[in-house]
């Protein structure tokens, strides 16, 4: 299927090249694609954070490609449905943006998944990353990260933390943190950060790893405090929060980030992927785009397709080990 | 006496569904304990409850008379087939052909004979949906089958 | 800023011409989109969200608010005229609204629903202004145990709705609870009853369920019978208007429904669903002739409509005062604010008073506009029923399919409507009440996750349900309700089967 399309594309571009008397086939091919609207599948509903992020990139992308870029929202199963729908689309005109889950942890956690990340997905570019913050109620005992770890060590399983579901980024991050800090906490699954926030403020649970933008308004109102951030560098949205890595005896390489990437089905013409990668990297350099991403709690990234591939491999391994530990504990 | 077959069959179906869910959940998912409930706890308990309720509906109905209500088999088949075809076709064939096919199938049991009005209706509704959902609400979906590839 | 100053300030914000225009635009579009079966506030807002990127945040929030409650007015139209509810709340409205329409009293039912919606919204606004602080404290002091106990009370109280035989009513609730189990279990991550379909991992689509159980099932039975009966006779203007008796029956249910809704709506979660069902159950219980319910009682339309609209307004309490969205629609609205660079949270009332007070006042203006817009439209909506049914029903089928598709762009969900429709038709034949199935479906996952969460937090100690005062009140009320029902059944049994 993919091979035939590539051949058609080559034939078409060769004809166009001859017609226009252009010598370089590659140039003609790039001028030729895209000849029809490009579809970008997003595995989250319209108006959600991953959707808004995708649209921040696809709008300028449409200008650069000279064809409409249609965002198709196919929410479900933590983004997995969106990736599956992308793979069912027409190669060369079907792309996707997705958070890290469907490319790293979902194959372990979601049953009956229909794709294989290594064989079916072609990475295009890493678009943005977002750390989580460790948040507690403002009047909670521990004043900083060291105090938190100390309190947890004094009372194993005594600290209850909330997450947005079994296997969610917030859950896995907390377990990665607990393992690195040598502590044990009680996991309480919720379905949204809104519920986790209410429960922490109401004093029902003690802590939670959550999106900085969910915690920030409560911190400003003196209802919550943030003890640490999971990125390697301080995060611009919450610049005063210390990084966890290297703090209070935590390992220097501690890192737990959500990310959002632009992907294509495997078998998409490498020339198309290159062109998209270049365009997306340019868009991500735009200060206006960076600022809008930051307002939603995302840090604009970028990089080569190979960098994204490496990130997928690394994270699959890190989170796979966490999942192994969780499963062994049950 | 005509028994209350609706309640007998209805109750029996509930009992069967309940029992099936309870056994499936018991076999597939961890039940846990009352203190730490597993994923199988609720489905198993609810399935058993439904099975019991089903029997409570079906058994008394055996000794009770009931009225018969007609079963509109043709209508049900046409309507459900039209919906299923719409679901299968929308993303493959696009909005216009799928709407037309669904309308034609759905209108089969309508009590007026003839094809002319059915075809006209199909065209009119297809045009209306295009106007409302594609032009008005800007929903993203294919309108026509993709030609070529 | 005192309340009066705030309201005056809000008036200056909301009456700015451009803001007013977006308010009008929002309620008009909300109404017309809401009339389309299956396209509720959620889909309408996400479809219109892109427009708001280009206007000020106040205008954006006011317009989306207009779409939100406008869609509820519109949703009532489809559920009363054609029994096509897209939400559990509209399903309650259709319980008596649709029988009224079949008796040729569609105009009265629409009138009752619109007036009740308006009054309910006004009650909600008054509560929002006077009690926002109290309600936001209540919202954070509700823990998992309290939610679980409250939902169980709601379920028990409402599960007697429209039941000739209690066993059939309970069976529907339990079947709904079972269907609510389908999907990923929040606590363990296990996929339950999905049978290998990734489309089911997030559960059965609520709109598909409501459309299949109500609209599709009803349609199948009507194809031949509606044609035989011929189109309904021409309705004169007099018949569109309520009788003096109708008017006398409405104020009580509206006041009670509005009060219920404004309390439950402020609690994050499904305040609006619970309050509609509770309002219906309450009206039926206190009515001297409860047998009229389900046969076209105007109280059964007015109470729940007032309840769900006041709940829709007070749902803004946690959203605006805490920055914590109570449901996906509110989350979408907050998302719209974030895109504009407004950070919603506990400080917003002080930092951006124009947001809060402008919105409050625009709620009032918007609802007034809706009433003015909708009353003249009643005649047009009712005249839709004069379209020959053989033309109408294929169009309804296509619209239902697209309404379901609008939720998450899934062809699977449309095909699911066919399966659910078959189930719904069989249930209707055997006279099971699908509204109760919907109630169980919505509350089931909430009861389960909160119950299990409460047990986790208390480290497996069930006494938590009696230790927490809020939960204890609900538990006692539930037991009292069950006790009184059993006592009533026992007395009827003692006095002999003839009674």
What would you note in describing this structure?
- The complex is a heterotrimer of chains A (330), B (149) and C (499).
- Chain A has helices spanning 2-19, 25-32, 49-65, 80-88, 101-104, 106-109, 117-120, 145-154, 169-181, 193-201, 212-220, 270-285, 287-295, 305-329, and strands spanning 38-42, 69-73, 94-99, 121-131, 133-137, 160-163, 186-189, 207-210, 224-229, 257-265, 299-300.
- With 330 residues, chain A is of the alpha/beta class.
- Chain A has two domains: 38-130 and 257-327, D-Maltodextrin-Binding Protein, domain 2 (3-Layer(aba) Sandwich), CATH 3.40.190.150; 133-255, D-Maltodextrin-Binding Protein, domain 2 (3-Layer(aba) Sandwich), CATH 3.40.190.10.
- In chain A, the strands form two sheets. Chain A has a six-stranded mixed beta sheet, with helices on both faces. A five-stranded mixed beta sheet of chain A has the order 7-6-8-5-9.
- In chain A, helix 1 crosses helix 2 (25-32).
- Chain B has 149 residues and is mainly alpha-helical.
- Chain B has two domains: 5-61; 73-136, no CATH class.
- In chain B, 66% of the residues lie in helices and 0% in strands.
- The longest helix of chain B is centred in the first third of the chain and has 24 residues, at 5-28.
- Chain B starts with a helix and ends in a 13-residue tail after the last helix.
- Chain C has one domain.
- Chain C has helices spanning 3-14, 17-35, 41-52, 57-82, 88-102, 106-141, 144-158, 166-181, 206-229, 237-240, 244-249, 251-265, 271-286, 299-314, 316-322, 328-339, 348-351, 353-383, 389-408, 411-429, 434-457, 464-467, 469-494; strands at residues 183-184, 191-192.
- Chain C has a two-stranded antiparallel sheet with strand order 1-2.
- In chain C, helix 3 (41-52) runs parallel beside helix 16, helix 6 (106-141) runs parallel beside helix 14 (299-314) and helix 6 runs antiparallel to helix 18 (353-383).
- Chains in contact: A-B, A-C, B-C.
- At the A-C interface, helix 4, strand 7, helix 10 and helix 11 of A face helix 3, helix 6, helix 16 and helix 21 of C.
């Amino acid at each position: 299927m993919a091979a035939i399309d590539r051949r058609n594309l080559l034939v078409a571009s060769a004809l166009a090249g001859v017609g226009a008397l252009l010598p370089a086939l590659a140039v003609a091919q790039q001028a030729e694609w895209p000849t029809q609207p490009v579809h970008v599948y997003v595995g989250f509903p319209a108006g959600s954070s991953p959707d808004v992020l995708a649209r921040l990139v696809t709008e300028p992308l449409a200008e650069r490609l000279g064809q409409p870029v249609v965002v198709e929202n196919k929410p479900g199963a933590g983004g997995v449905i969106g990736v599956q729908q992308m793979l069912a689309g027409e190669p060369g005109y079907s792309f996707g943006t997705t958070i890290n889950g469907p490319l790293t942890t979902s194959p372990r956690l979601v049953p009956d998944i229909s794709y294989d990340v290594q064989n079916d997905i072609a990475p295009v570019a890493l678009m943005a990353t977002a750390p989580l913050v460790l948040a507690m109620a403002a009047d909670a005992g521990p004043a900083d990260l060291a105090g938190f770890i100390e309190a947890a060590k004094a009372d194993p399983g005594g600290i209850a933390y909330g997450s947005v579901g079994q296997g969610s980024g917030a859950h896995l991050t907390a377990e990665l943190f607990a393992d690195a800090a040598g502590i044990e906490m009680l996991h309480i699954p919720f379905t949204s950060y809104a519920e986790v926030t209410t429960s922490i403020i109401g004093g029902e649970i003690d802590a939670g790893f959550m999106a900085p933008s969910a915690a920030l308004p409560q911190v400003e109102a003196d209802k919550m405090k943030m003890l640490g951030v999971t990125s390697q560098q301080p995060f611009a949205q919450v610049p005063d929060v210390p990084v966890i890595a290297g703090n209070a005896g935590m390992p220097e390489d501690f890192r737990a980030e959500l990310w959002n990437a632009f992907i294509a089905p495997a078998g998409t013409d490498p020339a198309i992927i290159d062109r998209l990668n270049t365009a997306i990297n340019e868009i991500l350099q735009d200060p206006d785009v960076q600022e809008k991403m930051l307002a939603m709690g995302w840090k604009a990234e970028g990089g080569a397709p190979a960098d994204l591939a490496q990130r997928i491999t690394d994270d699959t391994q890190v989170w796979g080990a966490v999942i192994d530990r969780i499963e062994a504990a049950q | 006496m005509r028994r209350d077959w609706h309640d007998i069959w209805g109750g029996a179906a509930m009992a069967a569904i309940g029992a099936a869910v309870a056994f499936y959940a018991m076999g597939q998912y961890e039940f846990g304990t009352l203190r730490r409930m597993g994923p199988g706890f609720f489905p198993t308990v609810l399935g058993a409850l439904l099975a019991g309720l089903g029997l409570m509906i079906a058994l008394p109905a055996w000794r009770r008379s009931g009225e018969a209500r007609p079963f509109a088999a043709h209508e049900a088949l046409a309507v459900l087939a039209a919906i299923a075809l719409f679901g299968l076709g929308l993303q493959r064939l696009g909005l216009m052909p799928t709407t037309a096919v669904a309308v034609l199938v759905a209108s089969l049991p309508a009590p007026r004979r003839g094809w002319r009005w059915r075809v006209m209706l199909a065209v009119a509704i297809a045009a209306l949906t295009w106007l409302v959902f594609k032009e008005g609400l800007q929903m993203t979906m294919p309108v026509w089958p993709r030609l070529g590839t | 800023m005192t309340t009066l100053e705030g309201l005056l300030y809000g008036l200056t914000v909301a009456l700015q011409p451009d803001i007013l225009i977006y308010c009008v635009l929002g309620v008009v579009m909300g109404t017309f989109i809401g009339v389309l079966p299956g396209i509720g506030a959620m889909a309408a807002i996400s479809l219109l969200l892109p427009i708001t990127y280009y206007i000020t945040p106040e205008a954006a929030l006011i317009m989306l608010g207009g779409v939100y409650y406008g869609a509820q007015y519109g949703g009532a139209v489809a559920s009363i005229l054609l029994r096509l509810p897209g939400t559990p709340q509209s399903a309650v409205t259709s319980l008596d609204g649709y029988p009224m329409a079949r008796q040729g009293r569609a105009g009265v039912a629409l009138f009752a629903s619109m007036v009740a919606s308006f009054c309910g919204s006004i009650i909600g606004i008054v509560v929002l202004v006077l009690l926002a602080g109290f309600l936001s404290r209540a919202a954070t002091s509700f823990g998992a145990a309290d939610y679980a106990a409250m939902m169980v009370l709601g379920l028990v109280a409402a599960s007697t709705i429209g039941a000739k035989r209690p066993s059939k009513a309970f069976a529907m609730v339990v079947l709904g609870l079972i269907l609510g189990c389908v999907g990923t279990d929040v606590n363990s991550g296990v996929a339950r009853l999905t049978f290998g379909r990734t489309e089911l991992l997030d559960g059965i689509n609520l709109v598909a369920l409501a459309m299949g159980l109500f609209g599709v099932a009803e349609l199948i039975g009507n194809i031949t019978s509606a044609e035989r009966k011929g189109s309904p006779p021409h309705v004169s203007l007099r018949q569109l208007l309520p009788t003096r008796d109708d008017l006398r029956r409405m104020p009580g249910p509206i006041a009670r429904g509005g009060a219920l809704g404004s309390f439950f709506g402020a609690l994050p979660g499904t305040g609006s669903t619970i309050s509609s069902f509770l309002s219906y159950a309450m009206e039926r219980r206190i009515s001297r002739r409860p047998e009229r319910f389900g046969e076209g009682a105007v109280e059964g339309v007015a109470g729940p409509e007032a309840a769900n609209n006041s709940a829709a307004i007070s749902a803004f309490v946690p959203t605006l005062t805490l920055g914590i969205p109570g449901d996906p629609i509110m989350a979408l609205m907050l998302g719209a604010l974030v895109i504009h660079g407004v950070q919603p949270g506990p400080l917003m009332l002080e930092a951006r008073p124009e947001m809060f007070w402008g919105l409050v006042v625009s709620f009032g203006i918007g609802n007034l506009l809706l009433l003015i817009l909708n009353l003249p439209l009643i005649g047009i909506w009712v005249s839709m029923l004069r379209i020959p049914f053989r033309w109408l029903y294929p169009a309804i089928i296509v619209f239902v399919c697209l309404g379901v598709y609008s939720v998450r762009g899934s062809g699977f969900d449309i095909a699911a409507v066919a399966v659910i429709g078959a189930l719904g038709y069989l249930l209707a034949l055997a006279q099971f009440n699908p509204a109760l199935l919907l109630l169980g479906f919505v509350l089931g996952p909430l009861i389960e996750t909160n119950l299990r969460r409460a047990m986790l937090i208390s480290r497996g100690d069930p006494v938590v349900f009696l230790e927490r005062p809020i939960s204890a009140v609900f538990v006692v009320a539930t037991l009292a309700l069950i006790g009184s029902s059993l006592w009533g059944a026992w007395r009827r049994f003692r006095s002999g089967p003839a009674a």
